[in-house]
Each structure stands twice: as C-alpha cells, then as structure tokens.
Amino acid sequence: MYHELFTIDKAYHIKETVRGRYYYPKHPDGHGETSEVSRPLREGEVAEWILLDGTPATCANVALHNLYPDEIDLVVRFLL
C-alpha cells in the first residue's frame, strides 16, 4: 500500500523541461501543421491542439492544471 501511494505521489512532480507545439489538424484526414506559437485557424483546419513532449503523467498534470481554464473532458496519450 505504501509503495502504491509513493508511486502515485511522484507522478505529479515535474522535474524535466516540457516543450509544446500547437497542432492544427485538417478535416477529414487529420493531417495538419505544427507551429511554435498559437495562431488563428486557417481554412480547412478544425481545431487547435497543444502537443507536449513529456511523460504521460507530466502531460496530464500540465493539461489539467495549466492549459485550459474550463473543465477537460478527455486527455489522450500518443506513443510515437
């Protein structure tokens, strides 16, 4: 029990530098372009996503507590 609590607690310590990029997918294929800064949507783009380079726990922590002021419905993890 103690080990499980300790492991969960460490998941919220962000020690590394986390880099982010903005991604603009196009409908219907989902391919798009990335940008270092946020920009208005262009024709054919359906959303602005923020891609983070970090551990799954770090990305979830940043997303849930820093990127979006309202309630979040879903956090997706991609393995590249």
UniProtKB/TrEMBL annotation:
Gene3D superfamilies: Survival protein SurE-like phosphatase/nucleotidase. GO terms for molecular function: hydrolase activity. Residues 37-76 form the Survival protein SurE-like phosphatase/nucleotidase domain. It comes from the Eukaryota. This is Survival protein SurE-like phosphatase/nucleotidase domain-containing protein. The lineage of its organism: Eukaryota, Fungi, Dikarya, Basidiomycota, Agaricomycotina.
